[in-house]
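Researcher: Sequence recovery benchmark, item below. Answer with residues only.
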């Protein structure tokens, strides 16, 4: 073998090795290509980077999701709920088309009698029973807790002046003083100012109309309980009441409380709702104005 032949053999082997290496590299390139080469390794990592950007785009999604779920909630459930059961408009709904009577009690509060009447109101609270007390300021000063209890039970406190003066027989200043002293006593007792006035003896004239800054509430059924002092008679007179009537009683004698224990269940049995004077006029859509007197809500 000469040097040239040996060199040729090395040269061929080297060429073969290079060819094999080249083939191997090509093969590797083809094998890696489906997975992506070095460049395409960046692509997957780039497609992993969008994942975090998907995650941020997933964040707005929760932001968007709560909004629609929050918005329908008030639209679908809260508004109808409010309309049906909460607040003054909702409270008025049960009175629609109902027969209403307002039981009213003058000259109190008077310890046991007023509280016995409130016991009956409380007993039938589930029927929404409310009554109205036209209280004397001088009595309110003696029994402030009874007034508070009445208000807590949903009853109305009206002003019957401070100490039962006939407003047609006193001066304008005295009228103002009687009304304002009554307001102060009630406000001190329960933190609420009365919006209605019942003049003692139902007495009124042009001066009273012009001076008293509240609607004057009279009555359409007079039980004369103060005169008869008879529970049966008070019961029978009250049961003559019809829709829109205002019944006059006095919470100063036990016999009136005796009558009320029978009156309230009997009127409920007849399908009446027992409401305050203000509730009755509001339910009937009748506006109460100062300078006017009202006997009934009809
Ligand atoms: Ni009176």
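Model:
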């Amino acid at each position: 073998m000469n040097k040239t032949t040996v060199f040729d053999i090395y040269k061929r082997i080297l060429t073969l090795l290079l060819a094999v290496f080249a083939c191997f590299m090509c093969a590797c390139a083809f094998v890696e290509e489906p997975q992506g080469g070095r460049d395409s390794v960046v692509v997957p990592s780039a497609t992993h980077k969008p994942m975090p950007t998907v995650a941020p785009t997933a964040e707005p999604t929760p932001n968007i999701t709560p909004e629609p779920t929050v918005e329908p909630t008030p639209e679908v459930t809260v508004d109808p709920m409010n309309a049906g059961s909460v607040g003054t408009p909702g409270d008025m709904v049960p009175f629609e088309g109902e027969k209403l009577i307002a039981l009213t009690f003058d000259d109190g509060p008077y310890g046991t009698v007023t509280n016995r009447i409130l016991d009956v109101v409380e007993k039938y609270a589930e029927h929404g029973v409310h009554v109205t007390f036209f209280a004397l300021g001088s009595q309110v000063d003696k029994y402030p807790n009874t007034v508070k209890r009445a208000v807590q039970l949903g009853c109305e406190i009206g002003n019957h002046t401070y100490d039962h003066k006939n407003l047609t027989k006193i001066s304008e200043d005295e009228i103002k003083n009687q009304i304002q002293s009554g307001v102060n006593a009630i406000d001190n007792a329960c933190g609420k100012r009365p919006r209605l006035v019942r003049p003692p003896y139902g007495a009124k004239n042009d001066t009273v109309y012009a001076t008293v800054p509240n609607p004057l509430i009279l009555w359409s059924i007079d039980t004369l309980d103060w005169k008869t002092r008879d529970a049966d008679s008070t019961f029978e007179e009250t049961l003559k009441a019809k829709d829109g009537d205002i019944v006059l009683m006095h919470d100063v004698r036990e016999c009136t409380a005796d009558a009320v224990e029978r009156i309230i269940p009997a009127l409920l049995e007849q399908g009446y709702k027992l409401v305050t004077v203000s509730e009755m006029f509001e339910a009937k859509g009748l506006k109460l104005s100062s300078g006017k007197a009202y006997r009934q809500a009809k």
